[in-house]
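Lecture 7, part 2: worked example. A protein chain together with zinc ion.
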Amino acid sequence: MSEIASMTVRSKKKYRWDRIGLVLGGMVLFSFGLAAWVAPEVGLDAQVLSHPQHNATVPGLATVTAIREAREPTVKSVKATEEVVLPCSCNKNVLKLAKNPYTEHRRAARNLPNSFFVKDKNEMNAGKRNGKLVEVSDARGYHISALSHSHAVLLPEVKELLEDLGNDFADLLEGTSSEGTRIRVTSLTRTVKQQNRLGRRNYNAIDQASTHSYGASFDIAFTDRPDNDADCSAPTRAIQQVLSQYQKEKRILVIPEKACMHVTLRP
Ligand SMILES: [Zn+2]
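Predicted complex, written out as structure tokens:
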């Protein structure tokens, strides 16, 4: 082998290693480049697919959107239960109000202009038809809780009383951190059947022969704050102030009970 020839072989050998190195390096660079190129594309696709407007235009994906929307309230309710807002009690242990004797409540209930004994559901429906009873739903300052032993109806003038009570209560809290707190009405008009069912469960003399069966009374058991930013002191002071003012004005009769405030309109 001549010297030139051996050099050529050596340089050929050297040249070949360089090429291998170059190819390997190139492959590594290429694979990185490929990864960098592919990854954002996948992310972008996923974003596009999850976009509701995009889904709406693709019939096959509409189902996916629907399923996600159906799941959403569950997620929200889980979040909502994370921050528990406890209600503020309205009962004889918390509010300081004079007790009007029950005989007075009964007399008042019977003497209200539209008052009649709401014996059963038929009587109640008849009362609704002739305007002696009106349906009551949530309004400013108060809301009706889920009712199991009464119906959300009252004599028209008792509904007006509740509306005034709600407005005056809301006025007192407006502009404070307790704004939006609502009185929780837990019982309204009861038929005899509902009264008896309650009687068996809870032997409370006040509610056995009840002014609730005349559409003349309602119970307030709590005030509900919108969030935990403010404590119960302001709502409790407000409901105390409004009830005591109405009682002094001889507009209402009150019985502070163990679990609620029983309120009857005076004629
Ligand atoms: Zn009551």
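DSSP finds nine helices and eight strands in the chain. Residues 3-82 form one domain. Keep this in mind for problem set question 3.
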